[in-house]
Amino acid sequence: MVTHDKESASVLNGMAKRNGLDIVGGKIRRSSSRFCLGVEHGDYNGTELFGVGTDRFIWLGYKPNGTDKVRMFSGNFPDDGVVEFTLGDVPEPQSTPDSWARFPYGVSYILKREGYELTQGFDAVIYGNIPGGGMSRSASLSLNLILTMLEVNGIEMGDQLKIVDLAQAVENDYIGSPCGQLDQIMILFAKEGMGTHYNPADRSISYVPFGGDVDEFRIVGLDTGTDRPGLEKSTYKVRRTECDDFVKLLQAGGYEIESLADVKDEQLYGKIMEQFGESHADLCDRLTYIYKAQKRFYEMMEAWKKGNIKRVGEIFREDGIGLRDEYKISGPELETMCDVVRSVEGVLGERMLGGGDKGASGAIVKADAVDEMKKAVDVGYPRSRPDYADKYAVHSCKVVDGMKVMDGLL
C-alpha cells in the first residue's frame, strides 16, 4: 500500500507510462479522508458538524493535454482500463452504476450544468489508500476531480463552499447517492492538528486547535473488510427518508421546525415524545439520537479545546451506542470490531463510521496503545468474522490537511 507522497509519484508515473498517458512535468493533487467526531448523520438533519482530516489519501497526477478530452486511469480499478471522454459529453446520470468512471463523468456533467466553460482536457492517473465505507473515499475523489478540472481550465472559485455544493451535486444528482455535506466539508477545509467546526446556520467554518498534544492519540479506521453498497442502496437512504418524513409530520402538527436539529429544547422534545412516542416509536428513536447527539456535541467541542482526549473518546463511544440503539444505522461486522477494540486498555472510544450497514468502524486510541489494539483485532475479529479474515485492515491515522497540490514530483 502506498503511504507517502514521493512513493505515490513513483506509482503514478509507472501507471501513466504503462497506459500511454502523459503526466511528466505535471502536478499531484492529494485529497484526504475524514473522521467525523460529531454529529454523524447530522448534516442532513441540520446539526452543527465537527471533524478532522486523516492521512489516508487519494493522489491524482495530472497534466493538460491540449485537447478537449479527459483520459484517466485508476490504479484501484485497473480492469476498467483508461477512461476517456470529451468534456461536456458524458453518459446520462445514473447510467454507469458499476464503474468508478461515474465520478469524473459526474464532475464534467455538473460543472457544465452549472455554467462552467470547460475546454481544456488532461491526462491523469489516480491511486488511493482510503478504505471503502466510512472514511469518505467518494467525497475525497469528487473534490479532487472538481478542483483539478477547474484548475486545468483556469477557473478560480472564490467561495470554497461552492465547491462543497458542487461535490454534493455530483453524488446526489449524477450518481444518485443521497449524501449530505459532512464528508465534503470535513475534507476540503481540514487542517493539520485542527478540528473543523461547521455551523449550518450561517455556513461558517472555524478551526478548533486541540488543547493538548496531538501526538498523544491516534485516529483509527477499522475496515471490516465488508463491501458497503452505495448510499442509495443502504439503510442511510431509509434513515434520511424517515427523518424527512418526521419533520413533515411535526410541521403538519403545528411544530415550527425545519429539521430535527431544531428540537433542542427539553420541553419541546418531551412534548413530541409524549405525543408520538407510541404511534411513531421508530421515528422518535431517530429524533432521540439527534437530540442527545447535539448535547454531546457541545461537550465534545469543549473537551477538544481543553485537550481532554479521554473525554472526547468517552463521548465518541456514547455516540456510537446511540447510533447503534436509537438511530439503528450500524451493522453486525461494525459492532464486532467495536466490541473487540473496546476491551483494550488505551482505546478511549469507538463506533461505526459513515453511511452505516457495512464498511468501517473508528476508534480514538492513545498512541502507545495502538499496537495492542491491532493485536486484539488480529485475534478477535477473524475469530468472530471468519469470512473477512483476509480482508479487514487497521488504519492508524494522524490529523492532517485535507487538500494539497504538489509540483516537481512527476
Automatic annotation (TrEMBL):
Its EC number is 2.7.1.6. Residues 111-189 form the GHMP kinase N-terminal domain. Signal peptide: none annotated. InterPro entries: GHMP_kinase_C_sf, GHMP_kinase_N_dom, Mevalonate/galactokinase, Ribosomal_Su5_D2-typ_SF, Ribsml_uS5_D2-typ_fold_subgr. It holds the Pfam family GHMP_kinases_N. Keywords: ATP-binding, Kinase, Nucleotide-binding, Transferase. GO terms for biological process: galactose metabolic process. One of its GO terms (molecular function) is galactokinase activity. It comes from the Bacteria. The keyword ATP-binding applies. One of its GO terms (cellular component) is cytosol. Belongs to the GHMP kinase family. GalK subfamily. This is Galactokinase. The gene is galK.
